[in-house]
Amino acid sequence: MDNARRTDRSRASGALIQTLESLHMTGVTHLRRSVSSPAGAAESGSASKRKPDRKGPSPGARAAGQDRERALDEVASQVAQCTRCEELARTRTQTVFGVGDPRTRLVFMGEAPGADEDRQGEPFVGRAGKLLTDIIEKGMGLRRQDVYILNTIKCRPPGNRTPSATEAANCRPYLDAQLDIIQPQFICCLGAVAAQNLLATTAPLGKLRGRFFDYQGIRVICTYHPAYVLRYPETKRKVWEDIQMLMAEMGLKVPRRRDR
């Protein structure tokens, strides 16, 4: 038992050192203090709910937002030059970093760029992007530009295949840097790839839906990817249920239940 524990600790230490080295390579020099459990993806209870900030941005907050924009631009420049995944670097049209308000409380996290995203350089465009925009604007009553949208990896896998574990690991320092700069209060994972990579789990999406997780002090909810909903319209109601949970947790007004 003692040997097993020492082995686990050694692996954890090695993984931590590798992550810190990767973050240093991307220019990250400071990390947000974490209040999560050592597991990193523990389910959160009501005691950890955050009160919504209803005040507008102060001059100091606006200045901080400008700092975040500059920091994100620096990471985006590094992503644009990245060749860690030889196949993706060779076949991409351009990298797809992320878009939105760096001061936002809410980040939507998807899987990987598709063909439309690869052409335009923006995540969630095309039919799936329109559905996500409808969820944000018609469902939640927010504006797309008031949230931040990004993907697990920043290059399109050929044929829109699922990103490999190696590709996700290669891109993880960039994702971590984005989240550390933005400092969101909430993340909505869209699809199993995003949820499993962020929360370091192999649990299917059906097991992850319907509850909140804690990731380094951030409240995380998981739901189906818009592209999946387009293929299987019967999941639309489940997505709306998840979004209603998110809205309630954020302190947003939840409309009466209706079919969307």
Describe the structure.
With 260 residues, the chain is an alpha/beta fold. The chain has a single domain, classed as Uracil-DNA Glycosylase, subunit E (3-Layer(aba) Sandwich), CATH 3.40.470. Helix content is 47%, strand content 10%. A six-stranded mixed β-sheet has the order 1-3-2-4-6-5, with helices on both faces. β5 (213-215) and β6 form a beta hairpin. α1 (2-25) packs across α6 (165-182) and α2 runs antiparallel to α6. The protein starts with a helix and ends in a 10-residue tail after the last helix. The model is unreliable at 1-26, 28-42 and 44-61 (pLDDT under 50).
Quick summary:
By secondary structure, the protein is an alpha/beta fold.
Order of helices and strands: HHHEEHHEHEHHEEHH
Oligomer: single chain
What would the CATH topology be? Answer: Uracil-DNA Glycosylase, subunit E
Category from helices, strands and their pairing: alpha/beta
Q: Can you identify the CATH superfamily?
A: Uracil-DNA glycosylase-like domain
Helix/strand layout:
Elements: H1 2-25, H2 59-80, H3 86-91, E1 98-100, E2 106-110, H4 115-120, H5 126-139, E3 148-151, H6 165-182, E4 186-190, H7 192-199, H8 205-208, E5 213-215, E6 218-223, H9 226-231, H10 236-250
Parallel strand pairs: 2-3, 2-4, 4-6
Antiparallel strand pairs: 1-3, 5-6
Helix pairs in contact: 1-6, 2-6
